[in-house]
Amino acid sequence: MRERFVLVVVVLIGMLDFATGAFLLASPEPWLAHGRETVWSLAPSVPADLSMSLFRRIGAFSLYAGTVTIVWAWFGKADRRLLSALLITYSVVGVAFAYADNAYFTGTTYLRLKQAIGAVWTAALLAHFWPRAKTAGQSTAET
Predict the structure, then answer these.
(1) How many Cβ atoms are within 10 Å of 90's Cβ, its own excluded?
(2) Using an 8 Å Cβ cutoff, are 83 and 73 in contact?
(3) Contact at 8 Å (CB) between 105 and 34?
(4) Ramachandran category for residue 86: left, alpha or beta (phi over 0 → left; psi -120 to 50 → alpha)
């Protein structure tokens, strides 16, 4: 049951990244991806080619990140070590995102959403690494 929870969290976050990337790539107003109350809403005051270029590049990366997350989760289903690597890697990067988000999105709905996502991710991380109870006949290597 815990494994399923972890996989669902990882895949849902991958889908969110994919959807965000698609929005940033396709939208005529990509600066609204995180809401009207964020610093991104100032983008129309920046030269159009510069801001669109940056948003499209971020979109491409977000699309990539979402796709890789889902694929990695798929393979992690069969190999716990791969899922462990994903969870640890994304947790480290998540701290960097949290630092940037707290600096630039303070007081926004977007930041509250990101904090909720971080809490769910932390729950999945704990669920994945929490020691498993041994059942009769199960060796330590299997837990």
Answers:
(1) 20
(2) yes
(3) yes
(4) alpha
Which residue is associated with the tokens 């964020």? 38
Q: Token match 């009207």: residue?
A: 36
Task: Give per-residue pLDDT as tens, 38-50.
Answer: 999 999 899 999 9
Low-confidence spans in the chain with pLDDT less than 70: 135-143
- Say which residues have a Cβ less than 8 Å from residue 21's Cβ, sequence separation at least 6: 58, 59, 60, 61, 62, 63, 64, 65, 66
> Could you give the angle at the alpha carbon of 66 between the alpha carbons of 60 and 70, nearest 5°?
145
Span 73-100, pLDDT tens digits: 999 999 999 999 999 999 999 999 999 9
